[in-house]
Design brief:
It is built from four helices and seven strands. The protein is an alpha+beta fold. It has two domains: 74 residues; 116 residues, no CATH class. Strand 1, helix 2 and strand 2 form a beta-alpha-beta unit. Helix 1 packs antiparallel against helix 4. The protein is elongated, with a radius of gyration of 29 Å.
């Protein structure tokens, strides 16, 4: 015959309650943090969408550069004029829906001699060489529009090999130093695709207008997961404590 189970002591049950309360509070805190993160992300998406579709404004000049930041300026739709320095451009390795290739980063010299790096667009790898300009564009003074972007200083698993002129991030400061450029803006601009009067797809190279504006927003599912774990923890501790108290009550009656 199976011997009766020894009931948990009050001290053991108290430890279960304390441990469960800590875990429960932790899961609730994580869920609440995700709720706040979701609200922040939705606000960010709304602000960025507003910037992208707002009327085009003049790109920030040198006097405004110290105030330029990602929170208030990234993805602003701007216009700027100048002339390209094709002999100073940088090819940044990337992959896109079109295949593997390069972003073509070309300095644009403005009328005040300041410089803004322009991402002229994407080209397939076989369109470029590191010893010659990659698909030169218009010469002389031009006017273009595009989206302000903040410099990239890190790439997953890859690092810029400046000595070999191999680039994996659009690091404006490093490009300026390597290409001996001075008075360079602390941002770059993703050029818009050219307006085609015939409404036909743009087939020119570099292929501009490929900026992807996407912000992962999984915070609601994360919040639900954390809150669910909190409820499971509460249910488990409640079951253990009730079972322990019931066992103690049964044992006291049998004695």
């Amino acid at each position: 015959m199976e011997e009766p189970r020894t009931p948990r002591g009050l001290f053991s049950l108290a430890l279960w309650v304390i441990f469960g309360a800590i875990i429960f509070a932790g899961f609730v805190a994580l869920g609440t943090w995700q709720v706040y993160r979701r609200a922040w992300k939705l606000d960010l998406i709304a602000r960025v969408d507003q910037r992208i579709h707002a009327p085009v404004t003049t790109a920030p000049g040198p006097s405004q550069w110290p105030q330029v930041n990602a929170a208030s300026d990234e993805y602003r739709h701007v216009q700027l004029s100048g002339s390209y320095l094709y002999d100073r451009q940088v090819l940044v390795w990337t992959s896109s829906d079109l295949g593997s290739g390069y972003w073509v980063m070309t300095p644009l010299r403005m009328a005040d001699d300041s410089i803004v790096m322009i991402n002229r667009g994407f080209v397939l790898a076989d369109h470029c060489s590191t010893t010659a300009p990659c698909v030169p564009g218009a010469t002389g003074d031009i006017t273009l529009t595009g989206l302000i972007r903040m410099p990239e200083t890190r790439a997953f698993l890859r690092h810029n090999d400046i000595a070999a002129d191999r680039w994996y991030t659009r690091d404006v400061a490093a490009m300026a130093t390597t290409r001996k450029l001075e008075h360079v803006a602390p941002y770059f601009v993703d050029a818009d695709a050219p307006v085609n009067a015939t409404s036909q797809p743009d087939t020119s190279w570099p292929r501009a207008g490929l900026t992807i504006v996407s912000f992962p927003n999984n915070h609601l599912s994360y919040a639900i997961t954390w809150y669910a774990l909190a409820l499971l923890t509460l249910g488990a501790v409640t079951y253990v404590v009730r079972d322990g108290l019931r066992s103690r009550k049964t044992q006291s009656r049998s004695n």
